[in-house]
Structure formats: structure tokens, C-alpha cells
Amino acid sequence: MPDFAIPEAVRAEDGHVGRRLPRIEDRALLRGEGGFVDDVPVKKGTLHAAFVRSPHAHAEIVAIDASAALALPGVFAVVTGADMAAESDPMIVGFENPIDYYGLAVDKVRYVGEPVVAVAATDRYRAEDAADLIEVTYNVLPAVVDPVAACAPDAPKLHPRSESNCVSRRHFVHGDPDTAFAEAECTTDLTIRYPRNSITPMETYAAVVETNRETGGFDVLSNFQGPFSVHTVMALALRIRTAALRHRSPKNSGGSFGSKLTIFPYIVVLCVLARKAGRPVKWIEDRLEHLSASSVAPNRVTKVEAAYTKDGTVTGLRLTHWDDHGAYLRAPMPAPIYRMHGVSTNGYFIRHLEVTNHIVSTNKCPTGAVRGFGGPQLYFAVERMMQRIAVLTGRDPLDVIRRNLIAAEQFPYKAIAGSLLDSGDYRQTVEETVEQGDLAALKRRRDAARAEGRLYGIGYAACVEPSQSNMGYISTLKTGLERERAGPKDGAVASVTVSVDALGSVNVIGDSVPQGQGHQTALAQIVADQLGLTPDDVVVSLDTDTAKDGWSIAAGNYSCRFAPASASAAHQAATRVREKMARIAAANLNVPAAEVEFTDGKIHAANNPDNAIPFYRVGGLAHWSPSSLPDDVEPGIRETAMWNAPELTPTTAKDEINTSLAYGFGFDFCGVEVDPDTGAVTVDRYVSAHDCGTILNPGLAEGQIRGSWASAFGATFLEEFRYEDDGTFRSGTFAEYLVPTAAELPDIRLVHPTPHPSPYTRLGAKGIAEGNQYTTPVCIANAVADALGVEDIELPLKPAKVLAWVQAEEPPPSAAVEPDGDDALPARPTIDGSGEVQVPAPPEHVWAMLLDPERMARIVPGCERLEAAGEAGFAGAVVLGAGPVRGRFEARIDLTDLEKPHRARLSGTADGPLGSSRGEGAFELVAQDGGTLVRYRYSVELSGKIAAVGGRMVRGAARQLIDRFLRALVREAGGDADSGSSRGLSARLKRLVGGRA
Amino acid sequence: MKPAPFDYVRAECLEDAVAVLAEHGDEARILAGGQSLMPMLNMRLVRPEVLVDIGGLPDLARIEDESETVAIGAAVTQGGLADWPDLTSALPVVAAALPHVGHFQTRNRGTVCGSLCHADPSSELPLCLALLEGEVELHSARGVRTVPADDFQRGVLTTAKEPDEVAVRARLPKARDGERFAFLEFQHRHGDFAVVAVAAKRSGDSVSLAVGGVADRPEVCHWDALPGDAVDDALNDLAWALGGSDDIHATARHRRQLVRHLGRQAIEATAAGGAGA
Amino acid sequence: MKKLDRNGRHPVRLTLNGMPEEGFAEPRMLLTDFLRHEVGATGTHVACEHGVCGACTVRIDGKAVRACLMLAVQADGAEIETIEGLAEADGSFGPLQQAFHENFALQCGFCTPGFLMSLSEYLEKNPDPTVEEIKVALSGNLCRCTGYHEIINAGLDAAKALRERRQQTD
Asked: Is C153 an 8 Å CB contact of chain A?
């Protein structure tokens, strides 16, 4: 192993860049001595926070009663949305918009899991006890979850100041798409729906905050990942000077994949909480909180239209996006769609483009950064379209890709929407991948499988991989006039500081905020090479401190920033150190500084290695003997590079934007087989190639590719945050939100194509961490489309969904069987049921029972208290659940349309810490056989915790409760209640086989 | 995700556990391996007043080979049963099912009886109990009773065990000569609860098929004879009769298809040999 | 029969990587919280607290188990092994650690303690696993960074190193 590894780079013999150097980070991590936020000791007396969260997708907050919680010993403070509105300002985003966002819900909740109250107590256990005691009264409102439906004029509106849930609409025309479409030989369109997912890092959000009396601000330790432009957002919200918000990040962060950007609203809330509590406050987000309410990639609906020739050459592209950002926009949202704007035409030579972006609010978790950042959604649409064009023109999909790719001689290539594609030879990459990945063998495999009647398909996908984001691209969402008013925004500054001490030890700090990518190792390699040292001679510390470090707004770890930006900054800082040390050494060696070289810990004359001075001596001179330095050399050795690239220019008046600095290229192909019996899709072969220019360390680079493959595989097959149409959230645990494990993940064959280093980065390196997020979902989708001949492929490819594509019609049951499936009814988010039961009492008696609170208290399962309420109805407390899972609910039932003693309608609510339930139903009493036949139907919806974590079982549990109620009803009427639903099923099975069951 | 407060009793003998249950009833929960209970405690879905830990009772940690049955004590872990040398010959279907129960780390603590009492409709061990028509022995201050499988699991997370009762052992009939078994399941990931699991038993002409993950509990269908050409129709009707639900992992339709597909495979496997005594 | 009151902090004594440790816990305190915040052994990580992700895997009396699904009071008297105990006596990497290091089998390192402790038991039970066996054995541990490929290779390499070591001592 590894069979298909990225080879070590061929460089100078003593160079470390390009080598598979084992990681420095491992030395602590593998001994359990990492430094994650929760590992850092806190001051005695530090409190722990917990949140009360909304069980509803959309509701008015009528009242909050925290008195019982505050009375609990060990509870110090609670903060509500009203407190936040009084003590902080709404958190700004990059454009004027009608959304006021404070981190806690004010007046209304807008998604399940939204924080409503923060509470601080002596430990997390007590904080959760307190949260359970806080009573929030809601008035439930209709919710909307579909981004297209949310734009309708009559859709439930989330934000009172907005005219529509579409909070931003921008229309872009590049080239002349109207003419391209009007004159096209062929046109077609396709609508895709890209689901909601994220990459759920193993370490969740974590923060410790305390007030700082000296500054009037706050000291924060958190695993916030940047961009540090958001530091400003936090300070402004807290109404403090930016310098008074001291943010530190620890040595280690347990993965992020974008998600830890949006810890920042929590930091703002925790600061207000710490101020109110008068003590430091720590918060470690738990997994339920993370899955329901941290951050997700926007789901998106895209209508893609293409104009093309009969031979498959694309002449124009139209993209209409509905980008679903959930309940709030948090900076830098809605950035993902704009980050990809410049490469809307992917790696293809397409000169006519029209893009319409709808930024939509819905009753779902707000969005944030997720690895791939707008790319998976865009490329799913574009690459599915390429496959469709191949089908419609009767050509090989690879041929359609090839003929449209930008040619090598066109680089650097200015894409029509503004991206300046720096380098590459896309066709060469494709040919090398086809060759090394043995596409010919895969085609033979497919042909053999198809000859046996098996469902086998091949898919392809290409992608341009942007890295190092232009901080100005989000301004593309503003009109030219608005941009002019706001002033120019562009660039992406990266900072690294290299210092050499009096004994020649080298220290490196930087603003890259790693989350596991091995930055320490890579920076040590880069700096060591410049200074003629080994990586072991270089100490790299990448914990950050905004009060002390060099940093700028682009600081942080996102959008593949490290390889182009941080590596360049390190190279620049190390080069400056080298130049300075060369001048000091030159004076001692009596040679010009330009003729000084650094080798093996020595600084020497290039043409005479014996004319040398030890590296450490030069360090010593700089610190111990300033007087001996050449006249214009400052003492000490510490160089901070604030590196930026001039190619990152602002959005033009024509809305063209070079969204990123360096653009890699990826190309994948794969073979899949679909099992017609189960709907399961198996990835038989997967080949992946990425040209990311210079490879800094093949071990690190491969880790990024394979890691991206794994999360993209998850997005393709397993991972989805599921919401019902009414906004009920279903993916609350790792048993609902399924993450691939070692057992599911197929291996990939990595092809290492000829690299095309970036001319714009100092080492020629480009990002590599996101490529498979772009290619893999659509590559596999294209393969499934090829296998099944299906046009609409929607992710994730759950077998149940695929089965419906394979199996046109299900075999019906024989006449002997009465179907008992939920899907006998139209799909609804509710738990529905109906039935009848014979009660041994006349209708008048049954009627009286059903309206008598005392008797109902005996019949309703788990009833603790019940009294008459309203015109006809009950209110009380019930303990409901299944088996040991039980919760206390405040319940209210109202009866309407009473026709004594024949029929009535019911509606009711139940609210408790486990969640909320709303239901309606009806019953009818028919005199029969001396008793009463009770016919009933019900429809119950459940939301909150129980719906999020117990989805597999809530229907069964509800059926069980109804069953218990009916038995109790029969018993109360004096009958024998021993006939239950499971026994009913047994009886059906018995009838089925005519024997015992 | 931290449990609500509770008192904790480490039982030193079975009588301790029975006494606590007699006193606290529904407000007490038995803790053995904790692999089902602890997640529910952490999520505060379950809030007992007192936990009674029986995991350390040596009397309950025994697997006893009785003449016709195997008695599995309440503290026997799934991993412990998997390591029992006689498992494959005595309980071939359990041997086939156990590797699918969670992961080896959860099997290291999770108990067999705990899984039965948790009564997850998709769980493998209750499916085996149902197929084999085993029984569960319940103790309380009121005495001892034995409940057959068909009466034990009532529905989702619900069994016949009364609040004052503790399951002390489960008894599973040993495979007899000529009996053939098969176990199959469909899951999204290794170690997940099954979308659908089936276990089949053939004895002479008669065939039994237990199906988990579709109805609210494992259901067993028994055919005195099931010729090969009748299997598909029989399974189709069974699938429709069982019903099933749509949830985020699968649809009712998909579950029916899996009953047809896995059911046929399992029944064919028992005809072809399968796992036997 | 002793009842530990919910409001009390009760002594818990255990052996951690061969050393005696003592601390106090309310009955509801999870073993993870006890190890990390009462004893100060922060090498064991917490990532889901519902038994799915495996990050908190430790060995208790030799068995790899989820520490988030155990109460601290249940571990009273137990022998516990964690990632902090995997190094050689001289502090150098043990075979598992070395294999992870050489294979780039960790990135953020947050899930790593669980993988190491799972393999630590598994490779004792199955010293010469196939790739498929090791994949199944690791399926109870989630990693979001690596894509598992390198972890699987590290597991195979560690198995080999451990076999060789055993041969040498035999």
C-alpha cells in the first residue's frame, strides 16, 4: 500500500515540500494529549450552558416562564430572546435584508431546534435540569419548508419585515444567452433538487467565554474556524469595540468541514449570558443540538436549461436557483451560491450564461459553510445536464464532456461569469484518468453485466475546484450601485509569522486555524526548505489569539484556503527571514547576500560551502549583538507576511467576479450496479483524479481526497436532514442522520494526473479538499441514470427511493389479504389511523363517558389530572409514551360539532419536554348489538425531540396509545378489552395461512 | 445530553432488584448492560427515580444448557453468548443473528435479555425469540412466571413485563435434528437496526418465517407446507398483511419488497441446508 | 444493598492504565465526564453520547466499550485502559500508534482514541484479520476526516507488528 498513491514530488534533493512526511500533529494526538476546547482547563466557578429549544417549526412565543429554573440550586442566569434584543444588536450579513437575527428566538421561533432560552448553571447536568423547567408557551403557525413553495405570495411568511420569503433575487446575464437559446439547434431543461446535508464533525461546537473588565468586552476560547470577518459581526452585535472581543482558538479542532463558522451566534449569546451570570460560561454543544441546529449546506432547487448543437456542444446555459437558507441568514450567507458564481459554466467553454438566484427563507435550520460550499449543488445541475445532453444527442457522455472542456491553450481562461481559471489542461487530465483508471476495462464490465440482464451504469463528472476565496465575491449579490456605495471589497489576506530566536530556533505562527488537515506539518516543511533546516527544527503553533497574532478578515480555514494562501504566506515570511539572515551572514562571510545559501543548518557562500556560519550563530547575532548587524538591518528576526494576490479583484460593473484565486480540476468516473430486488446501489469501481498543482505533502493531500470522497459518498447515499412538509425535523441522532462507516465505504482508485501548478500562488499549490464533494454525488447519479435510464435522480440514493425507479408496479396482494400499510393513505407527516371498536354500553352511556372528566381520567392512558375546560373539552396533565420512554404533557382537548349522542369532532394539543403534539379526529357512535360501535379516526402530528430522535417508532407508539385508550374505554363500559392490535395482526396472519401464526 | 437525576442501587442479589421494583414499580428501571437504556437516559427520554444495576450479579451471568433449551441469564452479554462454544450447534439462528446486533463494543456490554426487554421492533434477538418460540422468566415479589414469546413482546418498546418484574432469564429451544435455520437482514449500515430482518426455520415440510422491522413487533408466520412455487405468493400476502410504515429510513413499500426478497432467500437457504444443529 | 442518593457525590475508585485513581460522582454522571473532568484524563473524547460514534471507546476489564453508555458509579472497581496508556514504557509510540502515524490514519484526531481502543481489543481477539473483517470491526467507530482507508491500513499494519512482537516474546 498505497497502490494508487500520489507520488512524492520530484524536487531538490534536500527539499521537504512534496514529501510524504508523517505528521507532527500525531505526536500529541496519538497519545491522547491533544488540546481541544473541552480539554483546556477552565477557571473554578465556570458555569455551563444549556439551551431550551423550539419543538415547533414556526410559532409565536406567547410567554416564557423561567422562575422554576431560576429557583433551582446552582442556576445562575437565564437569557431570553427579549434579553438579546435589549442587550445586543442584530447580527449583520453582507447585504441589507429584512431579517433580524439575535442568536435566540425573539417573538417567534422559526425552526425545530432553534434556541429560545440560554441557561447557565454549575454543571451541564444542572443546566439541562433547569432548561427542562423553563416553560415556553407557543402559538403554532403554519410552516413552509420547500424553497419554491416558500416564494409563493400566499406562503406562510417567516419574517415580518420581508415582503416575501425570497429575501434576495438577483438576475445575471453574461454574454448573450437569449440569442444563444433562440438560435440553438437543440435546447432542453432539467430540474434538480439537491438535499440538505452537512459533514457533522466529530467534535461539536465548543466555547468558553468570560467578560473582560479591562476592555469592557469579552475573552472567548472557541473552535470557531473563521473567516475572521465574522469577528466583526460578533463585536458589532455585542456593541463593543472589535479589539475588545479577544478570540482564541485552541491547538486542536475536531474537524469542521465548514460547520464551525456558525458557532458565532452562540458565542454572542454566551457572552450576554456570561455577563448576566457574572461568571465564565462554557458550552459544549451536544450531538442532538448539533444535528438539529448548528449548520447545514443549503438545499437547492435548480432549473437548468441548455442550448446545444446536435453534436453535443453547449452554446448557452441558464440556471435558475432557489437556494434554501432556512430560517435566518448568518454571515457570510448566502455566500456559497456566489462563491461558485464565477464558475457557473464549470470547466466548459460556454460563453452565454444566464443565472437567477433566489435566496429563500424556510422553516428549517439556518445554513452555513459545508465543505464544497455551493459547489455540489451547482455541479449536480451542470453535470447532470451534460449527461442528459449525451442521452438526447445519442453520444457518449465522455465525448460530450471532452468536446466542451476548455482547451489547454486557453489558460489562463476568463470564464464568462468572471472566474480567472489560472492553469490546467483539462483534456489531458481526462485522458490520463481514462487511461490510468482503465475505463476500457470498466466498459467491458458494464457490457458483461448488461449481457446478463443486470442493471449496471457508468457515470462521469468533471469539476473546477476553486480555492482561496475572494473576500469580495459576496458583493456580487448587491447591485452595481449598492457596491459603489459600500466601497470596494476584494482580496484574501493570509498571515504567517516566522521568527528565529537567539539560539536559532524557528517559530512559526499563522492564521490558518487547522481542523485536522496537518497544517503544522506542511508549514514546517515549507519553512524548513527556505531556511536550510529540517521540519523538526521548526516549531509551528497554530492556536490563534486575535489580541496578539497577525490576522486579517480572511483568516481561518475554509474554501481550500491553506494550500494557496497560508502556504504562500509562510513561503513569503520565510523568504523574508532568509533574506534578512542572508544579509547578516553575508557581512560575516564577505560575500554578497545574493550569493548566500542555506543548507543543513549552515549559511554559506554558494560557491564555497566551507565559507559558512552556523544558522544559530546568525540568530544569536540578531538578538545578542544588534551593534554587529549591517546598518539597515533591524535587530531580532521576526517576519510577518500579510499575503494577498492581485488577481482577486472586485466584482465588475458587469457582475463578473473572480471568486477564487486558484482553480484545480477534478475528473471522476465510476461504475455502479442497482439491485432490482432491494433498490440498493453498489459502487463497483470509482476512479478519481485531481490536478491541484503542487502537492505539499502527498500523505496530507490523499487524506483530503479520501476524506472528501467519504463525506460525498455519505451525501450521495445516506446523509440527509429530513423535514416533513409541516417542518417537523426527523434527523436528530446519529441513528437517523446516517454517516458512512468503514464497512460501507468502497475504496477508490486515485489517479494522479500531471500537475499544473498555479502561476498565482507562491508554491504553485491549489486546494484539494473539496473536489469529491463536487464530482462524487453527480458522478454516481449519472451512473445510476445510465443504469436505469431515469432522468430525475434525487439524492440521497436510499434504496426505498431507487426501488420505486426500478420496480414500476408492486405486486398486489391476493384477495385474502387486507393491506395494512401506512401508504394505503396519501403520504402525510401525520400519524393517521381509523378503526372501530364495539363497546358494551348504549350510545347515550358512551357519550356521557366521553364527556365526563372523571371517567375520561380513568380512560385516557397516563392521565394524572383532567378537568373540564371550555364549552366542551378537557385540560389536564398526562404521561404518555411507549415502554420506558415517557414524558409528562400538558394536554388540552376540545370537542366540536357535537351531535349528542351520535358524533363529534375533536382537536387537541399536548406539550412537554419530549415535544409537542397536535391532533384532530372524530368519532361516531352507532347503536349495535345492544351496545355501541365506536367508529373513530385520528390524525396526530408530533414535533420536537421525540419526532427528531424516535422517528422509527413514533407511529407504533401512537398506535399503542390509541389502542390503550380504546381498551380502557371498553373496560370502563364494563366489557372485556382483551383484543389488541398485535393480536389483530396475528389473527390476520392466521387467516392468511389457514393455520397457526 | 445528560441524564436527569436518579438514585442508583447496585444489586448484590436478585432479591435486591425485586425489592426495589416492588417498592418503586414503574419509577425504577433495571440496568444491566445499558446499551439500550443509557442512550434514552442521556436524551432524557426515560427519567427513572431509581436505577437498579443487575449487571454484576454472577448468578445471572450464566448460560445454562438445559436438555431442550438454553437458559440465558439476564447479565449474559451478547458478546458472551457469541463466545459460548455450543452456540452454533444449540442455537444456530442466534449465532447467525448476533453479529448483526450493534457492534462488538456494544455487544461487549449489551445483554441478551436487555435487548428482549427493550422490544425494538427491528431488533434481531427478539426476532429469534419469536421464531424459536422461546420464553422469558419474570420474577417479582409476587412470584415467578414464564411468558411465551408470542405474549411477551406486545408492541413498540412494550412487553408483558409488569413494572414490578425483572426478566431473569430467557429460554430458547435448542435446534433439533433436521431443523434448518437462516437469518438475513437489510440495513443501511453495518450494525444499524435492520430495515427488515427475517429468520426462517424449516422442519420437514413446515416452514416458519419471523419478520422484524415491519409490524410493531416481530411477527411469525407458519406454513405446514410451503412448496417452492407457492413461496412468492405466500410472501407477497405476508408482506401486505404485515403492513409496515414509512419512516426516514425506508417506505412501507420497500419493507414489503424486502419481506418478499429476504423471505424467499431465507426460506430457500433453509431448503438448501442453512444453519442447522 | 446500598443505594446511592441522587444528590450525593459518591467515591469512585478505579484503575486507569495501571494507576489507581479516585474521584467523586453523582449517580447520573457518565463515565466519560468522570474520566475527563473528574480524573482529568482528557484523551478519551465525547462526540455523540448515544452510543453510535464510538469516539469515547475505552477498555473496561479488557473489553472495548462505549464510555458514554456507562455511569461512573458502574466503573467503581474496574480496570480501565484509555489512549493515554497505549505508549511504550519509554513513552515512544506503541504498535497501534506507530501504525496510525505511518499511515496518515488520523486527521483531526477526535475520533482516534475510539479507533485505537477498539482495535486494541479487537486485534487481541483476531490477530490476523482480513480487510473485510477489519472493516466490520471498525464499523462501530465514525470518522469524518479520513475516509477510513488509512485507518484500515493502519489496523492491518498494527496487527502485523503485534503478531511479530508476540512471536518474539514466545
From this structure: yes
Among A798, A813, A960, the residue with its CB nearest the CB of B240 is: A813
* Domain A43-141+204-253+259-293 bears CATH identifier 3.90.1170.50: yes
Give, in order, the Cα–Cα distances in Å from B255 to each of A15, A443, B187, B245, B266: 59, 33, 11, 8, 16
**Cβ contacts of B5 on chain A, cutoff 8 Å:** 125, 129
Close Cβ partners of C91 (under 8 Å, ≥ 6 residues apart): none
- ipTM for the whole complex: 0.99
Which amino acid, residue B97?
A
Q: Sort out which chain B residues have CB atoms less than 8 A from A913's CB and list them.
A: 44
- Confirm if B148 and B69 have CB atoms less than 8 A apart: no
CATH code linked to domain B7-53 = 3.30.43.10
- B103/C139 CB distance under 8 A: yes
Interval A16-29: pLDDT, tens: 999 999 999 999 99
CA distance B99 to chain C (A): 10
Q: Which residues of chain B lie closer than 8 angstroms to A129, CB-CB?
A: 4-5
A742 with C148: Cβ contact below 8 A: yes
* Chains touching C (3+ CB pairs < 8 Å): A, B
Closest CB to A738: pick one of B188, B217, B236: B188
Q: Which chain C residues touch A36 with a CB distance below 8 Å?
A: 42, 45, 110
* Half-sphere CA count of B129, side-chain side, radius 13 A: 32
Within 8 A of C82 by CB-CB distance, chain A residues are 32
Quick one: pLDDT at residue A977?
A: 66
Q: Annotate A778-831 with three-state secondary structure.
A: HHHHHHHHHHHCCCCCCCCCCHHHHHHHHCCCCCCCCCCCCCCEHHHCCCCCCE
May I ask the CATH class of domain A493-540+561-643? alpha beta
Rounded CA separation A254/C114 (Å): 13
DSSP B98: G
Q: Is the pLDDT of residue A857 over 60?
A: yes
pLDDT at A10: 54
In CATH terms, B62-173 corresponds, of 2.60.120.260, 3.30.465.10, 3.30.70.1150, 3.30.390.30, to 3.30.465.10
A516 interfaces chain C, CB cutoff of 8 Å: yes
Tell me whether A707 touches chain C (CB under 8 Å): yes
d(CA C61, CA A909) in angstroms, rounded, equals: 49
Q: Locate the chain B residue with the closest alpha carbon to C4.
A: B8
Query: Which chains touch B (3+ CB pairs under 8 A)?
Result: A, C
Q: Give domain B179-276's CATH number out of 1.10.3720.10, 3.30.390.50, 3.40.50.620, 3.90.1640.10.
A: 3.30.390.50
pLDDT, one tens digit per residue, over A472-510 is 999 999 998 899 998 999 999 999 999 999 999 999 999
Domain boundaries, chain B: 7-53, 62-173, 179-276
Phi and psi for A976 in degrees, rounded to 5? -95, 115
